[in-house]
Amino acid sequence: MAALTHPTSAHPAASGGARAVPRVHAVPQVRPRLSVPRLPWLRHLGPNWYATVMGTAIVATAGAGLPLDVPGLRAGCVAVWALSVLALAVLLTARAGHWLCHRDRARAQLRDPAVAPFYGCLAMAPLAVGAATLAVGRDVLGERAAVVMDAALFGVGTVLGLVFAVAIPYLLVVRRRPAPGEVSPVWLLPVVPPMVSAAVGSSLVPYLPVGQGREALLLGCYALFGLSLLATLTLLPLLFGRLLLHGPLPLALTPALFLVLGPLGQSVTAVGRLAEVAPGAVGAPYARALGAFAVVYGVPVLGFALLWLALAAALVVRAARRGMRFTMTWWAFTFPVGTCVTGAEVLAGRTGLVALEWLATGLYLVLVAAWAVAGWHTLRGLFSGALLAAPPAPGPVTVRTT
Predict the structure, then answer these.
(1) For residue 373, which phi and psi values (nearest 5 degrees)?
(2) Residues 293 and 229 sit within 8 Å (Cβ to Cβ)
(3) What integer pLDDT is reported at residue 402 of this predicted model?
């Protein structure tokens, strides 16, 4: 009986002298990965850069509301608005490249309690540009396109603001428990965006159909106002207590004291503008009550804002005499002061007080000067590369100085 053999092990004669060919398994080809350019100049680009967009946009919005007829003011505000739109587009692209090319650094910034709160600026930047678009951008885009653009930016900014208002404090709670001496004004940044949304959303109320839509947006804006106000009121005592018990902030962080003006001035702006559009959205009794609330709330809060402005300015002068140099925290001199301008403008419109008109005008001059100085130093640092360089290693922290 012939022996059974495997075909691949058969003798060559069994197949007519042909040599058997062993089976060869195909090896899958590995495609080379696409290399992502590193772009080293993006590595240290942080979310704090969105403050430049906010500070630029508020110059246009506040200028449009001034009770003055200055030749060229409107055209200048339109030019500044266009600059803010360009700056927002460039920064969104650059930050996307930052996350793509330097994901490790981006994650480290998100975990850093000193940097993570600046993600609130990411939410406020589109809101500020949206407000400026409807205020002066309509001169270029037309009213319909300006409303659509403002609504889109309002939606994006509001969603991001609500996410960051929860996520950033959560990270601060679970990732690190700072000591009382480490309380910083930048902690306000994640909770301020809903207040900005309340002010910006008020301008969209008249463009909705009469009925449920208008009322829902109006009351939703008041809910955003309350959310941000109560969160701010829980943080302000911590900050004031830190100053009294532990002394002035470090020199580079001293300008951040102006951030307190943001929720104060923006809340006055929000209740004033919401009161203006309330008659078309809710019944007459509620509309009258909201109009009275705008003045009863706005005047005392604006007074406290002026008190804080004087205190913060005194501490900044002290820091400047001790060698404070330019950092990106200088942009805190712009948007927060701008919200006080818009708050004074709204109160002036509701009360008719000329003193409030002069206050708004004087604060606007301060805003423009601060924006010009911060912008000039930022451009110098940007072109020299100093502002995109690696931050210096942290040194010893002195809690109190004399």
Answers:
(1) -65, -50
(2) no
(3) 36
